[in-house]
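Hey, can you fold this?
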Amino acid sequence: IVVLCDVSGSVYTMAKVMLTLIYSLSSQFRQVRSFAFIDDMVEITAYFENDEMEETVERVLQDHWKNGVASSDYGQAFREFESDYMSIVGPRSTVIIFGDARNNGRLTEHHIVEQMKKRAKRLLWLNPERSDSWNMGDSEVNAYLPFCTEFRECRNYDQLEEFIHKLSA
């Protein structure tokens, strides 16, 4: 499992929930590689190896929250993932992207998501926004949607629980 988690301002509250999910996945599955980004992609796998869940989530956010810089740049993050980590994605991989796909007018680099999908068994995207707000303003959902095995709204614990159940089935 490879998880890419947007921790920018627009998803900050739900990012805490997703980091908690990553913590849980790391304790249940042997091979979970996890990454956080606002614009730079940072591997956070080691954070989930020893600490308590709440401490881990807070430490990830403290270490990678860029002094108030909160505008995501998915294109930059995906370029860094492609350059530094794409080799970890293989035919047995499940890639999970968590984020609102709001790219603040920057390049989407959706071809990198397409490349991830071609390499992986499946690519799942969890979006914490209501689906009726997708593709409005700076939302780039339509750029990424064609390359996802599944693209779903995930705004609350019921939706997250449904996703986890489906993931482990």
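Oh, and this one too while you're at it.
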Amino acid sequence: EKYIPQLAACTDVFLWDYKDSDSDRHRQYTGVGNEMILRNLSALNAYRADVRLRCIIVAGVNDRFSHMDAIAELYHRLDCIHSVELLAYHPFGTAKAGLLGHTVPEHREWIPGNLTPYKDYLREKGVCVYE
């Protein structure tokens, strides 16, 4: 949080990863809750930053409409978020994570077209979806 003023002053657009709206599930899959992510995002809002919220969608983990509702709520609550980008999960980092000694849960890879219902849902909620 303490670096937000300096970062906001010299950054045109923040590409802000938002993995899961449920802090317990976020902790389960990433090792930490999402509280700091949300605090820093709120701090950026105070500096009128330009943020694209990037949400990786993982089959069986956060592919829920309740997560989309939380994304839409965040979008409408914070003026700094100008668009939301939904990204299909890909397993490119799993080999590297294994080499680092991390256990990586297996997930099937998404076909990008499978994100269309979620993108449409967000648009219906008034969210600008980045393509």
